[in-house]
Amino acid sequence: MTRRPPNWADDPLLADEVRARAVRHGIIRSAVIWTPLFLGGLGLALFFLFDVITGGESGGTWFLVVVLAIITALFGFQSIQALLDLRSEPVSAVATVGRRWSRSDSLVMKSHYIRLTTGADSAGRRRHAGRSREGDRVRLSYYPHTAVISRLDRVAADEAVEVARPQ
């Protein structure tokens, strides 16, 4: 029988740190993708709104302004959530999992969600949400605006519900 050499992934503290950084990098990636689209859409919407109001020659129509406003609002929602979470720390909570589900958010990505009995929904990767079942008591750490789970562990059923917000 051969012994396997020690690996950094065997250390739970290092593995938790790597997972926390991966979640944080995902939020940064989301901000980098959605913020320029939001700002560009906002600039175009304001330009064409000004063009329609003043009767300019740039070809702006009310239909174009409304479509740009809707698209800009969608980009802005994603961007602002990510930017708010970059300025905050994860929130910790102990609660009961009320429901679990997954869905395809795009053609290639599948997200897993849990609903806590406190009423909050959180999204996570399979390794987080897949560890819990409906009715399990869990201690989780998540970002409050994007609701992305950075850590999830099952706990004893008699542990009190607590929500600790960073200061």
Shape: elongated
| Rg, nearest Å | 21 Å
For this entry, what is the oligomeric state of its chains?
Answer: single chain
Report on the biggest sheet. 6 strands, antiparallel
Count of strand segments: 6
Strand content: 15-25%
H and E string = HHEEEHEEE
Percentage of residues in helical conformation = 40-55%
Separation of termini? 51 Å
Q: Which consecutive residue ranges, at least 5 long each, have pLDDT under 50? A: none
Q: Total helix count? A: 3
Number of domains: 2
Structural class: alpha+beta
Rounded average pLDDT: 83
Secondary structure elements and their pairing?
Layout (H helix, E strand, L loop, with lengths): L11 H43 L7 H25 L4 E14 L5 E7 L4 E4 L1 H4 L7 E6 L6 E6 L7 E3 L3
Antiparallel strand pairs: 1-2, 1-4, 1-6, 2-3, 4-5
Helix pairs in contact: 1-2
Please sum up the structure shown:
The protein has helices spanning 12-54, 62-86, 126-129; strands at residues 91-104, 110-116, 121-124, 137-142, 149-154, 162-164.
Tag the structure with descriptive keywords.
167 residues; alpha+beta; 2 domains; 6 strands; 43% helix
Describe this structure in words.
- Helix content is 43%, strand content 24%.
- The chain is built from three helices and six strands; from the N terminus they run H-H-E-E-E-H-E-E-E.
- Strands 1, 2, 3, 4, 5 and 6 form a six-stranded antiparallel beta sheet that branches.
- Helix 1 runs antiparallel to helix 2.
- The longest helix has 43 residues.
- The chain is elongated and about 75 Å long.
- The protein starts with 11 loop residues before the first helix and ends with a strand.
- The model has no long low-confidence stretch (mean pLDDT 83).
